[in-house]
Amino acid sequence: ADATYDYDVLVIGAGPGGYVAAIRAAQLGLKTACAESRETLGGTCLNVGCIPSKAMLHASEYFDAAANGAMAKMGIKVTPELDLETMHGQRRDAVKQLTGGIEFLFKKNKVTWLKGRAAFEDAHTVDVAGQRVTAKNIVIATGSSVTALPGVTIDQKVVVDSTGALELPKVPEHLVVIGGGVIGLELGSVWRRLGAKVTVVEYVDQVLPGFDGEVRKEANKIFKKQDLEFKLSTKVTGVQVAGDKATITVEPAAGGAAETIEADCVLVSIGRRPNTEGLALDKIGIEVNNRGQIEIDHDFRTKADGVWAIGDVVPGPMLAHKAEDEGIAVAENIAGQHGIVNHDVIPSVVYTWPEIAGVGLTEEQAKANGEIKVGKFPMAGNSRAKTNHEDGGFVKVIADAKSDRVLGVWCIASVAGTMIAQAAQAMEFGATSEDIAYTCHAHPTHSEAIKEAAMAVTGKPIHV
Ligand code: FAD
């Protein structure tokens, strides 16, 4: 350790980016501290994001399977009764165990947790709750917060953000979700399954902006079958709350006659913005870009010498696994190694039922870049999905027409989030569609659909 400083590495923020960076730095022999202003470690992801949302999705999926007759079809007749408090309890338990797990890992790896908000004094000094701490390297991993809708106040009762939507004390009669992105669809699904009427209002003409076009269309069809209602190409112009009811005013995105929707709960899920307020970035000469993000180079260095940044606060998809991988890479770079994240191969998953996942280019992006071949395989042709009575969904493999190198893979399937890992790995290794087609896949598994979609690239799947 360099005696000039209190620490070799100080990480600001203990989300999946920050806590992973801190642990890796300590594993590499660097004296490391991590400042976190929350009461618990784990950031957005463990406290109010990935983990609690998955706890509610998992539990509500069971409830729905019992309620909608899916279990009865398999000879299990039950009439479910909702005990929402217990469902919330198991969510809180999952969060507690996992955030406690990070605390344990900090202790095990000798990472010091500095409790409190950090603000820069200079590029090697921060103030953490009144305490002056110096470090040779400082990693900004402050994450992101919910984007507000101008003029709409989040009261966490009638008008909630994702954090409030995880904790509703009762099932709403009518939940209006503003924003048809991943978070809105996941949380909308939770409350729909538990009995709420759910209407999703989306500004653009299809849900899941950024996903492959065909996947978006198919997803929309599936969600409609699950009785989620959609108002696409529609903008919200106001939300009026009176007592425990809200009136949402909407109008066509292109302009036109306004209408109102009555609801007892409104979820604002229009996106997230990077957390840089209060960091005193001006003291170290860093300005944010027009999206509020901190710009970095290939090695995660900011403009300020000795200051690095990773995760939701820098450009790229706002995803926990992207933040984690950047956390490992930045620590390795600080230690003089060569940490790299391949930003072309970062999977995205929507944990609805079925799950929706993709990695690499969409068909639209790939087409715009050059000649491509596309292989598609329906989940209806997959024996395991069929056996499990799962209908709907497909896998699509997009390959370069000349080299056959896989450019993107998209799946809608019950376990698409798990399936997409093999596609990411294949792409990381520079696989061709033929490589996947000639890899032996265990039978009967959902993953065979990826193999068959790869076979379909050359027009020769078997089971369709
Ligand atoms: P964060 O997790 O936001 O952590 C930053 C931490 O820094 C926070 O704990 C904050 O308190 C702390 N902090 C900020 N400023 C300071 C300061 N000045 N001093 C000290 N501490 C500070 N991603 C997925 O990949 N999969 C999912 O399934 C998924 N589901 C999600 C569901 C929801 C409802 C939400 C809201 C998000 C979800 N995400 C998901 C996104 C994921 O949570 C984020 O991409 C991820 O948490 C980003 O990690 P991070 O380390 O950059 O920042």
UniProtKB/TrEMBL annotation:
The keyword Disulfide bond applies. InterPro entries: Class-I_Pyr_Nuc-Dis_Oxidored (IPR050151), FAD/NAD-bd_sf (IPR036188), FAD/NAD-binding_dom (IPR023753), FAD/NAD-linked_Rdtase_dimer_sf (IPR016156), Lipoamide_DH (IPR006258), Pyr_nuc-diS_OxRdtase (IPR001100), Pyr_nucl-diS_OxRdtase_dimer (IPR004099), Pyr_OxRdtase_I_AS (IPR012999). The active site is a redox-active disulfide bond. The gene is lpdA. Keywords: Disulfide bond, FAD, Flavoprotein, NAD, Nucleotide-binding, Oxidoreductase, Redox-active center. This is Dihydrolipoyl dehydrogenase. It comes from the Bacteria. Binds 1 FAD per subunit. Residues 346-454 form the Pyridine nucleotide-disulphide oxidoreductase dimerisation domain. It comes from Sphingomonas aracearum. It is an enzyme of class 1 (oxidoreductase). Its EC number is 1.8.1.4.
